[in-house]
Amino acid sequence: MPSIASLDTLDCDVPVVCFVGENGSGKSTLLEAIAVAAQLPSVGSVGRAEDDDTLSQQQLLAKALKLAWRSRRYRGFFLRAEDFFGFQLRTKTERAELVEDLARIESEYADRSDHAKTLAMGPASSSLREMDRRYGIDPDARSHGEAYLNFFQQRLVPGGVFLLDEPEAALSPQRQLALLALMFEAVAEGSQFLVATHSPLLLAYPGARIYSFDNETIAPIAWEDTDHVRITRDFLADPVRYLRHLRAEDE
Asked: What is the pTM for the complete model shown?
């Protein structure tokens, strides 16, 4: 990818950095490689990006990256929107295993004192309560978008580094604004975000540094100059004319 091949230094010294560009321009590839190099937990069916077989090329790229930290961070996570289904499945599996463990302990300690049984059940009971607090007793009761936003509400901890690849995928415009509000709170508590996105709403985060991947070199770009904002603005200004033009091109 020309944009990545020509990369020398990329300054990410502001609370929110956004990667923007067409599909295949390299923005997600670089974000994934940074996630591998940063050794952050990964949201999905695989717990770490460096162990994810779908990121084999990014793992090679990560070896060529050198990350310089003003203050080394170990809190946070890496999230690709498409991996959230895997995360939900893993969460449901872990919850089912905890319920089975509690049932087994209940049976094994049926003839023991209540105190002994309580001690034996303690770790599993505590883990189950925490899972239920974060995700609800029945995660399937929420819509995908609601569960997705709830994940951010529970996991955006202070002082973390969060690498998000197209987080808007499961969110309506209103929910994207809610995610922005969560980002405001997290940044106020010392967190940092690197976000690859197509969303003009997320790109509008005040003070965000936006890097465009659409040319041979990765370069800063103003919000209003991105194709995502320009095309959206032109379409909303006159959708009938825009659609008529598209239909004329197809004829």
From this structure: 0.75
